[in-house]
Amino acid sequence: MFSVWVTVEVQEQHVSEFLAAIRENAEASVRDEVGCLGFDVIEIDREARQYGFYEIYRDEVAFTLEHRRAAHYATWKDVAARALVPGSQVITTGDRFVAITSR
């Protein structure tokens, strides 16, 4: 499985807009994309307005060709262009090696 870890910092005046947009992007990704297996949004530091996303895809193709071409992703990118602190977005990708969850 292909995993994506994204960290961002949000401009103070855009926090509400950002939270609504990332929620919609996460929900639509899991609901509408066959290759998206999970999409978690993490609040890293509320005061610093830092957030992370952990996304799991069937494979890299599901991420690059399905997710990044989806209408909800285009909407997210429009909001991100306004809401994120310029240069704050860091994207790390890789193959998921181990996943252990409780029942």
**Percent range of helical residues:** 25-40%
The strand count comes to: 4
N-to-C span: 20 Å
Strand content: 25-35%
Physical arrangement of strands within the biggest beta sheet: 2-3-1-4
- Using the coordinates above, name the CATH class: Alpha Beta
The tally of helices reads 3
Would you mind describing this structure in some detail?
With 103 residues, the protein is of the alpha+beta class. The chain has a single domain, classed as Alpha-Beta Plaits. It is 38% helix and 31% strand. The chain contains three helices and four strands. The chain has helices at 15-32, 60-67, 71-83, and strands spanning 2-9, 36-45, 50-57, 90-95. Strands 2-3-1-4 form a four-stranded antiparallel sheet. A hairpin with a 4-residue loop joins strand 2 (36-45) and strand 3 (50-57). Helix 1 runs antiparallel to helix 3 (71-83). The longest helix is centred in the first third of the chain and has 18 residues, at 15-32. It is globular, with a radius of gyration of 14 Å. The model has no long low-confidence stretch (mean pLDDT 96).
